[in-house]
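Good morning,

Both structures are done.
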Amino acid sequence: MNTYSNANEPNSTPPSDAFKFGRNWQRYIENYFDSERVEIAARSLADLIGEELTGKTFLDIGAGSGLFSLCAHLADAAKVISVDVDPDSVEACRRLWRSIGSPETWEIFEGSILDSGFVSRLPRADVVYSWGVLHHTGDMYTAIRNASTLVTPGGLLCIAIYNRVTEGFLDSRRWWKIKHRYNHSPRWVQRAMETAYLGYWTARELGGRRNPIRVASEYKQTRGMALMTDLIDWLGGFPYEYATADEIVSFCRVACGLQELKITRIPTAATGNNQFVFRLSGPH
């Protein structure tokens, strides 16, 4: 499931059982989005990139709600390009774009990073950002390779990819089965699974002697996100691929010609995201 793809023209249409990320992001915009979350997200973006965005081109692949595209615009990026394959995500992104006056320096497109024709029409960017997205395309390594072709020489590729876990009850393979089951179930079963997962999360917090109510209220400190948005995203996020941090670094070096600048690793037994910042050699 996680071998490097050699397909010349992968299927760029989302699978019929793909999770509807856009609907989840629209609920986030309606129920949680506010100026405080924008400030938190902006700090997390700046911490990850480690460079000023002023005067640069920022390409957001899998823009979702549009939150980080908005942050890049507010950080004085010369150009922001938001891309998402989900029309509901595109509309959520446009909603934020309209809320700040529809700036001409921020463009939004619907399309797949697996579509070579679409990718060829996108401009290269100083910062290509795709946090927690490329492992949901159904062809993760092709998606990473295509994203890397959009980086200008000397520019950055910033990605986050689910960690491969091979031990324990809830390892990566079991999570694949859970997500597959969720996306092949009627809505009433999905709701039951969401309730069960929230109960599991609560029990885990209590088991770690943490107050679930406090953790939930402080959760926005994690990139400006909302707990329920992320719980549903994690439970439903399908297609689902994963890799160790070393596997991603090796692929990006060999197949994409990138050099790692920063790697933020999670514990080896955790299935969350490892974060990477790579640079494409060239003028800087």
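Second structure follows.
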Amino acid sequence: MLVHGEAGTGKSSLVAAFRRRAARRARVLSGACDDLLTPRTFGPLRDAVEDHPGPLATALRSDPDRESVYRALRAELRGSRPCVLVIEDLHWADDATVDALRYLIRRVETVNAVVVLTCRDDDIDDARGLPRLMGTLATQRVLRLRIGALGRQAIIELAGDAEVDVDQLLTVTGGNAFFVSEVLACGRSSVPTTVVDAVMARVGHLSPATRAAVEQLAVVPARVDLQLMNALVPNVEILAEAERRRLIRIQVDGVAFRHELARRAIVRSVPRTRRATLHRPVLHHLLARASPDLSRVMHHAVSAGAIPVILSHGPEAARQASRAGSHRQALAHYEQVTPHLEQLNPRDRARFLVDYAWELYAAQRWLDAVAAARRGLDLWVELDDRVAIGSARVVISRASFMAGRPDEAIGQAEQAVAVLEPTGDIEALAQAESYLGAVQALTDRHEEALPRLLRAQALAQRADRLDLVALCNNYIGCVRVDLGDVSTGLGDLRRSLHQALSLPHHEYAARAYTNLAETTYQLRRFDELRLWIDVGAQFATDHDLPGHLRNLEAHRALMLIGNGAWDDAQSRLQYLVDAVDEPDQLTRLTLPPLGRLLARRGDRRADAILQQAWDQAVGNDSLAALAPAGLAVIEAAWLAGDVSSASAQISVLMRRTEGRVGARVRGELLAYLARAGWQVEPFEGCPDQWALGVAGAHAEAAERWRHIGDPYEQALELAATRSVPLCLEALSLLDDLGATAAVRHTQARLREIGVPNIPRGRRPTTRVNPAGLTSRQVDVLKLVATGLTNAQIADRLVVSTRTVDHHVSAILTRLHVNSRREAAGQAVALGLVTGAGAISV
């Protein structure tokens, strides 16, 4: 159940009444998110089970990891007695709580519980992780209750005998239940113009001592527990006046303001200097506890300006959040410490900077990560701590690589290994060797990388670093696939994923997903690629790993290009390109394919984008960067009728693809050179789809591309056959894609072979159809919906059955359905056919 509405509409009141009634028949677990500067990791879940021993309370002790909490949460709600789990104010939730709830929501039908969530919907875009949670809720069965404004009659009933202008009250308050109740309670004859005025009108009637106590309590977000209440207000009787005036609620377990807006209004009325003073006793008593909640400690320490506390507890608060996978919270804690960093001793400062650099890396702030780690490295050099020096160089290496600086990445990793080898620290050396092997694998040094990664893996096993064992399997798999041992390499990659998930190590698992996606894309295994993208993107989203998510979404766009869904692919690529201020390692996956797609569509922007992509690839100097940029430039030059203008790219790629590692790139390169009229021959190890075309077996190559699911390459091979029917089929495919440059090529080919009446195509109308379908695909879908077979549709449209096969496959892909029946249902939903005209679904 999702209860939502603007602040002050009565969500908490409704849920409180529900809790009271539900408690007669079910176990009720209730927690709320706090308006802290950095939210508590799993904060509302901790509150919910504070007095309820069980699997969740056990899992949340000390320093929990996400997966153990997920399993415990599910176990907690699977008992024989029904349970109600209430989590309020999700707009302030930490990432770990959001992701735990997303995990639970997707499995809610397996538990014996009702989950009740509340949130504001007036500032959802600014809420921390709430948009991700809403995305999950959109796919599930949810009872949504939106609490709206009070009407005139409701206000009349609330006002009772009070002398108030109801119409004026409705106009000023907008029917907001909290504001209405505040105005009525303040006892003024005139209506205040703001919530703050209404609240402060009541506060103004308090005695000085009670007002001081209320202001002291107000600096504590959410409920003030009994122990803290007694510490802050030793004479609790002084609060009776505030309770009578309905500012607070005193309960057996503590005190809370009747509404968060009231608490905020009181805090806002306190001068800033005194506000800091009020935070200090709260901080003092939190620190006196046996296991203080570090997020609460940091909130009050920052608000009180307690720099020693920030320095002593901030780094560990960040590390706790990072271990739980709450990377945004971790980064926020680190950045609360950084203004005061010079006050730490050199050793603590150096450790902080290196840890901070890893968190910046996780946030895709590659250059900031390099800068922080370099500062840490300089300190470790001064302290002459060789193990720490090596570890600092590892993070510099990884962040440098992601920032598009492969040479620096290699150099830093080599120096890390060199400085660590004499130390005898197997664990640190295993990490450095793993990262050096990884960057060698990513920069075309496969013959060096494989033995190094195998050595690193053996060291990691000796050091019992199972995370590094998983990481090594990841890059060992990539190397083996590139060297031609596809089956073994894919096995290594899958093993890496399973190992990382079982530990769990979120970042290494996400790396496995991205490398599985990259590998299956290069192998043109689109069905498997779709699986890794879907599952991996969900994982990267759940665990707040934006860099890996960006990688996977780039591969989704590449897959869509291959499948012929060009409109969708272009919009996704443009978004990914626009979202990054500076080019980095992942730019190779977005800028070149965007330029290549624009060139295929005859868009004048292509040339500038492709030049930019090539310049960046030359600076990167790895085949992984040079290949997509170079091939894009070469194809664009062929489409423009002057492949010689890409002579520099041809020369570089011919030279860089002479070994086994470049077989797939070389195959594609030779195919385009053959299309340009060059005399080239297939080579041993050339992928079949390219080798067939290079050898002149164009019909066979087209069939291979049809099986792969790439209509563009299929059409280019059909056009190369010089068969009139096949060239016409190619023209139809290219026209449906909007491949205007290749359409012109194919029309020229038809003229060469003597076709007098060449179809001009349907290009102007292909961009406006529903679900991104082309006009011809809409025609096919309508006929599919009537129950015709592909052969019958081919007869009706006067095209080949093979063309219809392609159209149906593309339709299923674009509509995200798995069968003709589901496609027929979508045709009805899109208004293309009536329900009566469609096959039964």
